[in-house]
Amino acid sequence: MAEIEESKACWPIDHLRMDIREIIDGIPVGVALISPDLRIHAINRAMESLTGFNRKEAYGVPCRYIMRNNLCPIGCPARKILEKEDQISTEGDIINLARQKVPVIINLSPLKDHDGKPIGVIETVEDISLVREFDQKIQGPSSYHNIIGHSPQMEEIFKTLQLISQTDSSVLITGETGTGKDLVAEAIHISSMRAKGPFIKINCGALPENLLESELFGHKRGAFTGAVEDKQGRFRMANNGTIYLTEIGDLPLSLQVKLLTFLDDKEFYPLGSNKPVKSDARVIAATHRDLNKMVRQGTFREDLKFRLKVIRIELPPLRERGDDVRLLMNHFLQHFSKKFNKQIKGFSLNSIPIMLNYTYPGNVRELRNIVEFAVNLCQDEVIHPENLPSYLHESVTMGVPVTDNPANTSSNTSTPLMYRESLYKATSHFDWEKIERQMIAEALAQSRGNRTGSAKLLGWGRATFYRKLKKYKLG
């Protein structure tokens, strides 16, 4: 501690510190000023968010304990800057206070006095975790960034997303819960010109009104009891980037007026301040609520609704996306098999109809959870019916229809799906015996008549398989 205290009073730019803090706080990437003895002299808000350390904790501490990047042990880049008076730009990883590994781009440059002598280092750190994550995703006609789907509805949405990524207009995303509104908002940001800026997300329904206003627009010290220092707020943090307001239907009326003012003027007043603050942030909002109905009920401003939905994206429920169910089943199976280090190759023939004939009221999120559950329980190379949640079996025995309008189910090429369609053409009710008979026939066809192989495909024992053959007179 004595070593730290000694370092706090000896840097030549000390008298400029307050001005520099204001300047670097406006920069959307993490910034740190490092003294010649390699200690933190100042960090901005973005660096606080990135590392998890606040500026008071970081001040005077050796930079390797705050930045914690993978370059420190193999050759301190700040020391190289001071010795060679050069610039360094490289990719690396940092470990934040929550012990999370964050991929970043690190830039270091020397700070010099009037005589050109190095007096310190300025380091910028840019979080590229979203870019790195998206780069690892499969790109192709069935996906847009990390959104998966090849149904006509999703293909149309992918085309729209490509177009609006070139604009800067407000976007309103609507759809049932679990349809992927958060993924769409992230995709819009990452494919836009603001991709290098911050992506700030806040749930408008998660905080009470007084706290939400402070969280969104910030406050001045003394604005209310407990406001011991200035707070910049999410809109200011999103400067040069995107602010994503989820559950916009839960925004109180008083804050709707403030949001409307920001959309019109790109400025707002923090709590306790009469000085406007400008922020160049793109607004994306999302809700599962019916805003038209809320306008009629007087709980949502009509003028705000029109300002938000300059561009509107309506995400379809999973039950209307046809073959996307099978596509997502396989996608999540691969994801969780890899995550849990399992060698699961697919779904058994008798588990597929159960999955395909469920209506998924929780949409893609529910399907994802079901597959994660099944992969956790599965001890074989394929997912069996007993690995699925029990309520799926109950829905089958109750004859739950696959869609509200089965006739609209799109055509496909997967065998179980073809069977499902033919079944619905024949009858509007679920008939398990017909499905089971068809599954046995398909298994025999796939295994070229090999009964042991057919039983394995279905996940049954040989005795069960022979009993079913006899029952359906397929032997």
Describe this structure in words.
Helices cover about 40% and strands about 15% of the residues. With about 475 residues, the chain is α/β, with parallel strands linked by helices. Strand 3 (about 90-95) and strand 4 (about 100-110) form a beta hairpin. Mean pLDDT is about 80; it is low at about 1-10 and about 395-430.
Task: Detail the topology: elements first, then pairings.
Elements: H1 2-7, H2 17-25, E1 30-34, E2 40-43, H3 45-51, H4 55-58, H5 63-67, H6 77-84, E3 88-95, E4 101-112, E5 118-127, H7 129-136, E6 143-144, E7 147-148, H8 152-164, E8 171-174, H9 181-190, E9 199-203, H10 209-217, H11 234-237, E10 242-246, H12 253-265, E11 267-268, E12 277-278, E13 282-287, H13 291-297, H14 302-308, E14 311-314, H15 324-339, E15 346-347, H16 352-356, H17 363-377, E16 382-383, H18 390-397, H19 415-426, H20 432-446, H21 451-458, H22 462-471
Parallel strand pairs: 8-13, 8-14, 9-10, 10-13, 15-16
Antiparallel strand pairs: 1-2, 1-5, 3-4, 4-5, 6-7, 11-12
Helix pairs in contact: 12-14, 15-17, 19-20, 20-21, 21-22
